Amino acid sequence: MIKYPSGQGPKSLNQSPNKPNQKNILYGSRGMSLEERLNQSNDYYRLHHVAVIHKKPTPIQVVKVDYPNRQAAKITEAYYRQASTTDYNGIYQGYYIDFEAKETKNKTSFPLANLPEHQRQHMQECLVQGGLCFLILAFSQLNEIYLLPFEHLLTFIEQEQKNSIPYAFIKSKGYLCPQAYQPMVDYIAAIDAYLVDNHDRFVLRGRN
């Protein structure tokens, strides 16, 4: 069963008479990567005082620099180093947020090879410290984006010993993120639904 958040985004947007319809929203987001949509959503959250969450910069190793003159330097060779943690982190209503975002064209599963061991280890360490850790998984062919709590992923890895997570498992254990104009991916609404379902572990602090 899909767990739909109780609200489809901030109340002020739901009540707006100028809110675009769903067809226009989905058409406008075509061609945008998951990262671009998440970054725009994070800008919205920050500007509306909902949450402060940022994408971590990808570390780069500079190999060669040319100096055409004394006042200028030009990087001519560099490569991306492997990130040691996850894509995004920040704070929401007093909760530390840490998550990795992945996109797949596969309709039936998500390959675990796309989530390296060092990222799993980092999320497990954050989870032990009381952080909210999860994956944002986008199935581009289905136009669906899920928030999968890391503890469910961890249980799956330990019990199933498989190389991929079935779509059915993600749909059952995850939370569907509403997609709209602003925010484009309302994963905070999915977090709220997760907190309600786990009220015995967390003190729910709703959005204003």
Question: Which terms would index this structure?
Answer:
208 residues; alpha+beta; Trna Endonuclease, Chain: A, domain 1; two-stranded antiparallel sheet; 7 helices; globular; disordered C terminus
Count the beta strands.
Answer: 10
Count of helix runs: 7
Succession of helices and strands: HHHEEEEEEHEEHEHEH
CATH topology: Trna Endonuclease, Chain: A, domain 1
- Biggest sheet character: 6 strands, mixed
Distance between the amino and carboxyl termini: 28 Å
Structural class designation: alpha+beta
Question: Can you put this structure into words, describing what you see?
Answer:
- The protein has 208 residues and is an alpha+beta fold.
- It has one domain: Trna Endonuclease, Chain: A, domain 1 (3-Layer(aba) Sandwich), CATH 3.40.1350.10.
- It has seven helices and ten strands.
- The protein has helices at residues 11-14, 22-28, 34-47, 117-128, 150-160, 167-173, 187-197, and strands at 52-55, 60-69, 72-80, 88-92, 95-104, 109-111, 132-139, 144-149, 164-166, 175-176.
- Strands 1-4-5-7-8-10 form a six-stranded mixed beta sheet, with helices on both faces.
- The two termini are 28 Å apart.
Quick synopsis:
By secondary structure, the chain is an alpha+beta fold.
What's the helix and strand layout?
Elements: H1 11-14, H2 22-28, H3 34-47, E1 52-55, E2 60-69, E3 72-80, E4 88-92, E5 95-104, E6 109-111, H4 117-128, E7 132-139, E8 144-149, H5 150-160, E9 164-166, H6 167-173, E10 175-176, H7 187-197
Parallel strand pairs: 5-7
Antiparallel strand pairs: 1-4, 2-3, 4-5, 6-9, 7-8, 8-10
